[in-house]
Fold this sequence. Notes:
By secondary structure, the chain is of the alpha+beta class. It has helices at 3-9, 26-51, 93-106, 114-121; strands spanning 52-56, 71-75, 86-90, 132-139, 144-147, 153-155, 158-159, 180-181, 186-190, 208-209, 213-222, 228-229. The model is unreliable at 1-8 (pLDDT under 50).
Amino acid sequence: MSEENKDLNSPQPDHAAKEEKEPVNIGKEIWEWIYTIAIAVIIALLIKTFLVDIVRVDGSSMFPTLENNNRLIVTKLGYEPKQGDIIILDSTYKKREAYYDKLAQEKGKDELSAFDKLLKSRSLPSEYDKIYYVKRVIALPGQTVDLGDDGMVYIDGQMLDEPYAQGETLSIDPSVHYPLTVDDGMVFVMGDNRMHSKDSRSSDLGQVPEDAILGKSQIRVWPINKISMTR
């Protein structure tokens, strides 16, 4: 047999040797899962806090525009109130801020820092818990609101066109006097169901600070058969 044939028939080296698998690091795998989940939770919280949220309508104060148990998508970032907008507001904001001011005075401060408020928020009396209302912006700072004997709303002397309103718009609190000029940094709000709405016509809520506004309702997403823009 020639040398050439001997080379062909002799055993060949295994060039496709299998790579050895590295042992699985269980601790590393668990840490990567925890890290991924933590990042996802943080992103979700940031979106909920600063960008959008989903809220549930509780009650009939916005009927017929919105109904009890409707779910709404609310946008937050950069929102500035406009007349006619449907907004979500913190109805206890002013009471809670007054409570913080009282605590600050007791400590000899002009006001509590945002960090101090965050710490105190964990131990607030239940009466200062956040309670959100869904209402419509009727007037902006500097505008004058009046309620006519005809059950209509007048802004700066002009009747407000309100095809969304249900029922006559009457005064509901004798301590709130009209005509009323909206203060700086405030908005005047009402529910569309005028005979069944606790709103800026009541001294319990009154004018709403812009800082108390969570955001603007954009879309009704529930029930499915009533998905629509909210306006």
